[in-house]
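REVIEWER CHECKLIST
Item 1: Sequence provided? yes
Item 2: Single chain? yes
Item 3: Sequence as submitted:
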Amino acid sequence: MIMNGWSGSGGDAFPYYFREARLGPLVGMRTWGGLVGISGNPTLVDGGSVTAPTFGMYEDGAWAVEGYGVDPDYEVENAPHELAAGRDPQLETAVGVILNLLEKNPPKRPKKPVYPNRTADAN
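Item 4: Structure as written out by the authors:
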């Protein structure tokens, strides 16, 4: 999964759960750690509203992600001059990492079962 330092909220939670489920490596920069929810937003007389953080995510008695973010397995920054030149180092690294993992651990091809004999002669 590719992630970047501007990711917050769901952009923090998704790589966190991706890692927890052991779905693959994380490539990019640490997310910014803004994973606090809001609820019960009172409406103001002018139609606006006020929000305040009301809940967050914790694990084993400690705050998870909030205030820190999620570290990548492969730290790669997308420098503006590289992006302007048409390169995407995070994408290039992610593709290389996945190709390497596939070479070391090729996917297992399921075996095709024998077709059942459903003719009248089968019984």
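Item 5: Key structural point noted by reviewer: The beta strands are 2-3, 27-28, 36-38, 53-56, 58-59, 62-63, 74-75.
Item 6: Recommendation: ____
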